[in-house]
């Protein structure tokens, strides 16, 4: 079983990015399990003085979850042309560890226009030595959609197939490493 950890960079209750990662978890192909990490909002602000034996429990849980996973998927909004602070904070807790090193990762997108955040996140994750999957990116346009419409869009057969195919391609990428 290929274990994938999916992280949404949005803390909003009605987040489209969180809806997308939840839908990925529901549509995982056989042999692949997607688990959602939803505790970015509980992480303390990263401080290098709090590493090693002083690592806060919530940060240790994130690091452990990424370490255990065979691959990581991230879906994140763009704030002021950048990566949301909560997600960057979560990634910062992993910078000086081994969790990210050679860890397969795939970015998926819920907003077609968030090109600055996509580029910045890819640069950050490559710098952290994630093995970024650069096959065709999954993009499902959910920008501005409210939950009922988001759910309807994510349940459309073409989108279910797109999620299934993206996960299969990522699982192949993981298995081939
Ligand atoms: C404070 C703030 C700043 C934003 N800045 C941008 C931006 O620079 N570029 C952009 O495309 N969208 C921007 N947006 C819109 C969000 O990226 C967009 O609504 C996204 O779909 C929200 O994701 P979510 O539904 O997962 O919370 C911003 C939204 C907020 C709240």
Automatic annotation (TrEMBL):
Q: Which InterPro entries did the record assign?
A: Flavoprotein-like_sf, FMN_Rdtase-like_dom, NAD(P)H-dep_reductase
Domain NADPH-dependent FMN reductase-like residues, every copy: 3-115
List the Pfam families hit by this protein, alphabetically: FMN_red
SUPFAM superfamilies (UniProt xref)? Flavoproteins (SSF52218)
The protein's name is NAD(P)H-dependent oxidoreductase
Name the species this protein comes from: Mesorhizobium qingshengii
């Amino acid at each position: 079983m290929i274990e994938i950890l999916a992280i949404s960079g949005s803390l909003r209750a009605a987040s489209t990015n969180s809806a997308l990662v939840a839908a990925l978890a529901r549509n995982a192909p056989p042999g692949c399990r997607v688990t959602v990490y939803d505790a970015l909002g509980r992480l303390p602000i990263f401080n290098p003085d709090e590493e090693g034996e002083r690592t806060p429990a919530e940060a240790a849980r994130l690091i452990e979850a990424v370490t255990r996973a065979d691959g990581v998927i991230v879906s994140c909004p763009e704030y002021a042309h950048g990566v949301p602070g909560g997600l960057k904070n979560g990634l910062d807790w992993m910078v000086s560890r081994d969790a990210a090193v050679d860890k397969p990762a795939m970015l998926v997108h819920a907003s077609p226009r968030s090109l600055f955040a996509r580029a910045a996140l890819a640069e950050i994750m490559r710098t952290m030595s994630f093995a970024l999957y650069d096959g065709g990116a999954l993009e499902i346009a959910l920008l501005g959609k409210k939950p009922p419409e988001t759910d309807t869009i994510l349940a459309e057969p073409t989108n279910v197939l797109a999620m299934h195919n993206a996960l299969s391609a990522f699982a192949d990428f993981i298995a081939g490493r």
